[in-house]
Inverse folding.
């Protein structure tokens, strides 16, 4: 369904009805009116309350039918039991969008959940879009619209600006809004989505992507309730050049438990969400401070093309602390060209002119030194961002004006660069830098991280190239055994080790002689997926006796551990040379559909969680980026004197697996290729496990 | 040498002479006097300047000899050339300590370095201890002593309190002081050590460890110039129960380069410094913000014995964000006991009572709910720290008094617990909580990290148990080959694989038959230490032919790659079963002497830098803690269905290696046991490389 026009009515109404309007400015039905009057809302406020003629000085209407016009939006502040008739009346009166403060729906349990479903069905029938229920509401600073009862407004109204905030949590969204205000940052809109019966945080992001007043989007979410809409919204923001900063909580066990009780919805796998949202350009964060730091640094709209940092400092120590932080996060700090260094040495013999550029405490008395060093860094260093560590000097009333006059011409001459100060001092002194387009941070490391985040925005990840998966794959009726799994995958171009399925010990010896010693023996059964766990695998068999003995042992192991298993014989495979063991898999994520995972074998995955994740399908070039993005990638590229592995073959295999998953459809629960042996020439799956969903029960069979 | 009495004179003088005193309050010789007059310095200020009778209203003396008393300290603000005669005069007049603002010494190059050495020799001769040269100076807030020319005082004097700051960088130290002041935090002293010709940051820490006015010590350092003194100072602070927060910069390549140019001293290996200082109880940090956060949280002196966090929140979302952060840093958030949860449910049916305890937006209007939930968390949850997420509500003038009255009785009733608010609002409103002993943070994640740091202080690391290394070891005259190295180590109880050194191929076959197939062959030469690099190792040889062929190949490899090498034959070793490959080593750190390193083999060390480091010697119990502290430790404990390795044997070996290093003395440059094979029963060095220093040139031979 298309949203824009109803969303515009919801977020920027020309007329808003307040159902359950109150004269008491501390009540839910009174707060929004009071805030709008205080802020000078540019539209019409239409209070509705059968018991009053006037509310807060405004004409009040006895019921919705009596309204003098069809409002663009309504605020509903009546008890849950009265909500259905209210929505029905709004529909009748031609109102298309309502913000539903009322609680007592899905967040209270099964009964409330049913009430919410019934209400949504009614709202759809009468053509009213809903924000909420159980929402703290919305505000739109530019037009003075306050469809919210948040008490955060008690300590002041927000400052108008370009940061948009979307939040599933009302209080946390309002906290972000208050944090921005207290830091002097300007906001465009705040939209909190409550129970998300209808309109979701994705819809809010989508709207902000198209809103001219919003330049940076901050989103807080606990659950992904509509993955395709979320990814669409992220794509729209990326296309509009607007960064989306996402704080996705519910990572921890405790956090996920709290999230479930809080939003009445399951939190998806955090690693997958990070990867998939990141794939669509979202900047994934963990704390509100870094969100505000980055939003602030990005809100000026400056997007330097060169990701490098030049540091000017009056303290050698601070220059080192900043250099350490830049290296930790991978932000390049190239040295100034030699000629420019020599020029600075002439100006100030004891300076350190490389980068950091230490213009020493002399600059404390002579802002022209600061000007000279900063100009040189901009002109000769060409840095995308400049960070000047000026500490308390910048905040000194005696110095601040001279510093501002020294830097202002440079700010104007290089509009495409970020210029930031690390400064301490009275807020009113520091605000003047800010107003001149110079970013101000009190902490040098936070400044470094925020600048880096903005520098990275110049090259957001390109949309994933999606190969056509081709015709649907005919999956077998039941879970295939290893040999059948490998055969199915090999039709898709996914190679496994040379091997044969055989029925008995004699067959195993014949197969071994055909393949060449040494060989590997594995039990072959659709009922035993994880063979190593029950000792039904034997490696490095050098002769017929060893093959016969191994055959007997694995039969015994299977009979002991899984007595009812159907045994299809054994698999004899050539023992492969030493290589790098990798892991590849796909599984169906409940939110995002099939996602592929790549990692190095064993510990890297299990202890370090060092994996790359992406939605399927994707091409080999994308697969290669995934493979090279893991921390352990150096192992594949020839670390420790080993030859590099065949990255082309490995990338092709991962891409083919992703296409397989897309073509296989929802009956495919998962594929595990573990290990995949990456060799200097080729890559081979040593094992393959395909799991299918039970009929009609997607995901029931996931392990 | 003993410091206390001179240090007391330097830091808390009863009388201070200002050499080069000025009437101009913006000059180096004028600023300290102005600041002391402004702050009401409790001692006597004695200006010295031949050109004036009165300076800033004080009697001025023409020269040092004319001073009416022997000052406890002098501030020297004269050009470098006049410094020697000034120091001589001070000694003559009985002044024992001087703070030397003058620049132009070691920081300027070789000539200045020599001038600094000459000056130090003179100072020692005349009995004057020196702070500096090139120092920004010192302040002692409680007595109003400002022996500093820092312009950070232009925006206000520090607040008196219990945080002490020691810094090698003047401007960065003053930045920390200004940051504390702007955050409303109280300081005891600031000591900046400049070039550290004499008094170092270690001396400053040592003094603060004994200073009654200092409760938390913050130290910024770029280089460790006197390792034993630093470790002594850390031990003294630990014994006094005072946490030492250390920001040690110069980790990055750029940072180390800048540090070298800044302090005229080499920065030691950051990993070693982190480990060794941490071993002595220092809390190692990377940024000033977390230093101030932790200093603030620790400065009240509350040290809960139970490391657990209870979270009270008015926003489910914030509760989740905090839970995520707590899990990320390993801070336990156990659930409230069931009975207590049930009681809270009776009070507020829709609350989430586990932990986080969500008392919902209802608490916004009813602070008694906040009281009930917080009391329950303290009483029934027993949490060491409580974090209440109150956001803008706590800062609301209408609510703040009621909130304070609700919490104050609990603050008094539980003096041994940390109570913190995450709160936004006007500073004057928030300061009232602070004054009541409630910590205030604007960011919930920073609050969580700071509380965790203080909770960890209850159990600082115990001093390392140091076994007696026994008599010195007679090292060979020249670098030993592998067989000799292993023999030397085996006398110390460090086991290696069963093996024999042989002269030729026939000998190799005889040795293989004695040891049992399969075997390993390695070249044996004192000139080839890293055998694998030149393919002079062959593994898994199953029969005499394979042994003969391998013998020929490795002779050829050695002849090709190191034609001049002395070849002592080959080493035949039993091929060991599969186990976990580890790495152990010791090397002589230029600052801290022999340090031992343990890690898992290969990638864990090379890619992830996942190692434990400690100064030698230490006992097996300590070794075990080191081994279990690495991230990959699970691999040793039986991850992936493997049997656990013999941790006792591994720990014993690491401890013995540390004792060996201590007993071997400074001629030992390093020992590398790589790999060490950890088996379920036993641990064996598969290779051993001992490197010795060249005669009289310690460290010259380090690789």
């Amino acid at each position: 369904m298309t949203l824009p026009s109803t969303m515009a009515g919801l977020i920027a109404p020309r007329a808003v009805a307040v159902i359950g309007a109150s004269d008491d400015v501390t009540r839910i039905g009174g707060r929004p009116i009071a805030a709008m009057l205080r802020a000078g809302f540019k539209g019409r406020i239409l209070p509705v309350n059968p018991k009053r003629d006037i509310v807060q000085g405004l004409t009040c209407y006895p019921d919705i039918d009596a309204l003098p016009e069809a409002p663009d939006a309504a605020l509903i502040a009546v008890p849950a039991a009265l909500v259905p008739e209210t929505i029905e009346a709004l529909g009748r009166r031609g109102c298309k969008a309502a913000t539903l403060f009322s609680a007592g729906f899905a967040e209270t349990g099964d009964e409330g959940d049913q009430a919410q479903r019934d209400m949504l069905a009614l709202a759809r029938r009468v053509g009213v879009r809903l924000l909420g229920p159980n929402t703290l509401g919305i505000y739109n600073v530019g037009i003075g619209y306050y469809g919210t009862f948040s008490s955060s407004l008690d300590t002041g109204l927000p400052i108008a600006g370009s940061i948009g905030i979307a939040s599933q949590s009302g209080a946390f969204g309002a906290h972000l809004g208050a944090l921005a205000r207290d830091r002097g940052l300007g906001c465009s809109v705040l939209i909190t989505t409550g129970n998300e019966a209808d309109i979701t945080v994705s819809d809010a992001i989508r709207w902000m992507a198209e809103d001219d007043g919003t330049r940076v989007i901050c989103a807080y979410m606990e659950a992904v309730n509509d993955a395709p809409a979320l990814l669409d919204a992220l794509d729209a923001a990326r296309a509009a050049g607007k960064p989306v900063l996402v704080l996705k909580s519910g990572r921890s066990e405790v956090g996920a438990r709290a999230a479930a009780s809080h939003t009445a919805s399951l939190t998806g796998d955090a690693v997958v969400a990070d990867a998939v949202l990141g794939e669509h350009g979202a900047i994934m964060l963990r704390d509100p401070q870094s969100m505000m730091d980055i939003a602030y640094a990005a809100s000026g709209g400056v997007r330097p093309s060169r990701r490098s940092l030049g540091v000017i400092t009056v303290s050698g120590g601070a220059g080192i602390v900043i250099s350490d932080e830049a290296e930790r996060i991978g932000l390049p700090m190239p040295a100034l060209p030699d000629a420019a260094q020599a020029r600075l040495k002439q100006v100030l013999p004891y300076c350190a002119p490389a980068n950091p550029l230490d213009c020493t405490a002399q600059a404390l008395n002579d802002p022209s030194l600061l000007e000279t060093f900063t100009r040189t860094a901009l002109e000769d260093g060409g840095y995308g961002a400049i960070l000047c560590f000026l500490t308390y000097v910048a905040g000194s009333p005696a110095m601040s004006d001279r510093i501002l006059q020294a830097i202002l011409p440079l700010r104007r001459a290089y509009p495409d660069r970020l210029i930031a100060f690390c400064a301490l001092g009275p807020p009113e002194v520091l605000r003047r830098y800010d107003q001149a387009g110079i970013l101000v941070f009190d902490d040098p490391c936070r400044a470094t991280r925020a600048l880096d985040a903005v520098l990275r925005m110049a090259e957001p990840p390109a949309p994933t190239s999606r190969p056509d998966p081709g015709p649907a794959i005919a999956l077998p009726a039941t879970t295939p055994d290893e040999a059948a799994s490998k055969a199915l995958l090999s039709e898709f171009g996914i190679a496994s080790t040379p091997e044969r399925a055989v029925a008995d010990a004699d067959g195993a010896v014949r197969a071994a002689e055909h393949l060449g010693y040494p060989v590997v023996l594995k039990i072959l059964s659709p009922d035993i997926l994880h063979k190593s766990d029950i000792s039904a695998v034997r490696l490095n068999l050098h002769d017929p006796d060893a093959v016969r003995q191994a055959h007997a042992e694995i039969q015994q192991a299977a009979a002991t551990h899984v007595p009812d298993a159907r045994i299809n014989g054994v698999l004899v495979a050539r023992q492969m040379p030493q290589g790098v063991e990798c892991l590849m898999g796909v599984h169906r994520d409940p939110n995002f559909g099939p996602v592929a995972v790549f990692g190095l074998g064993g510990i890297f995955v299990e202890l370090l969680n060092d994996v790359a994740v992406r939605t399927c399908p994707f091409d080999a070039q994308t697969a290669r980026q995934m493979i090279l993005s893991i921390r352990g990638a150096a192992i594949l590229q020839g670390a420790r004197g080993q030859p590099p592995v065949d990255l082309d073959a490995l990338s092709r295999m991962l891409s083919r697996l992703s296409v397989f998953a897309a073509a296989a459809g929802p009956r495919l629960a998962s594929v595990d290729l573990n290990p995949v042996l990456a060799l200097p020439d080729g890559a081979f799956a040593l094992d393959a496990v395909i799991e299918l969903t039970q009929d009609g029960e997607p995901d029931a069979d996931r392990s």
